[in-house]
Amino acid sequence: MSTGWYLAVSAIVFAIGAAGVATRRNPLLVLVCLELMLNAGNLAIVAFARMHGATEGHVFALVVMVVAAAEVAVGLGVVVALYRNRVPVDVDELRELHG
Amino acid sequence: MDEILFFVAGIAAILAAAGTVFLRNPFYAVLSLVVHLLALSLLFLLLYAQFVAVVQVMVYVGAVMVLYVFVNAYVGGGTEPQGGGGPTLKMFSYAIAVTLIVTIGIAVLGTGLQAIDGSGPDDLPASFGSPGSIGKLLLTTFLLPFEAASFLLLVAAIGAVVLARRRRGVLPGEERMVAALDLLAPTGTGSMREGVGAINPTPGGFTGRITPSTGASSLPASDDRTGDDSEGGSR
Fold this sequence. Notes:
Largest interface: A-B, 72 and 90 residues
Number of strands of chain B: 0
Order of helices and strands of chain A: HHH
Helix content of chain A: over 70%
Number of strands of chain A: 0
Oligomer: heterodimer
Strand content of chain A: under 5%
Radius of gyration of chain A: 17 Å
Largest sheet of chain B: none
Strand content of chain B: under 5%
Helix content of chain B: 55-70%
C-alpha cells in the first residue's frame, strides 16, 4: 500500500476527531475525541517513518503516546473534580476552573 | 493480502472513529474508541512498526482506556447534557470538519511528492521498528526528549493526584465516620504531645516531660525555654 492511503485514513480520522471536539458537550467525551486526533497524527508519523525507512519516526510516535497519557491523567483529574463539585457538566457552562 | 488487511483495518478505524463522535451513550463511545485503537495497531503492524503497535495495545487499550471506562463509571455516565447551541451550531461544527478534511486532503495528497505514491523502500533492515533499535535511539540521539517525557509523566501523575483529591473535608449530606473508641480516648491521643510524653493515656502512668537525669546537669541549659509550644500548651 502506498503511503498516501495511510495519510488519507489519518486525515479522515483527524477531521472526525475535530468534529467531535467541536460538537461533544460532555468534557469526558471531548477528551476521547482529542485522543482520536492524537492517534491520527501518530498514524501519519508512522506512515512517514515507513516511507523513509527510518526508525526515528517511531520514537516520535512513542513521545506522542506519552503526551497523550499525561493529558489523560490531568484531564480525567479535572473531570473527576468537576463532578465532585457538582457543577453543571457541560463544556458550554464551564467557564472557570477555580476550585 | 496487504491490501485486504489495510482496507479492513482502515475502514474499521474510520467507522469506529465516527462511532466515537456520534454515539450518544458515553460508555459506548469509549468502547468504540477501543475498537478504533485496535484497528490502528493493525495499521501500525502493516507499516512494520511492531513495537509501536504492541505499545499501542498495552498502553492505550490496556491502561488509558481502563482509566476512561473507570472514570466514566465513577461519574455516572448517562446521556449527554442537551444544552443550548442548537442544530445551527452543530451544522457549523460539521461544516468545519468537512472543510478541514478537504484542506488536509489537498495538502497531503496534492503535494506532488513522488514518495507518497510509493510504499517506501522494500529492503528494510531487520532492525527497522524493533525494540532494540528504538531503545538505542531513545538512549543516544533522543536522550533529552526521553528524560523530558519521563519528567512530564511524573508532573502529570502528581497533578492528577492533586486535582482529584478531596479538599473540602466532609461533603454536605455525607456522614462522617467516627470510631467508637475515639470517644473514649483522652483528648490529645495520637497527637505530637503524646509522642513526646506530655500525655499518657494509661491511668496512673507517667505524665510530664522527660527531664534529663541529674548527672546531666553539666549540660548547657538548653531545656529552659519558655513560651508556647506548637500545640498551644505552656511549658
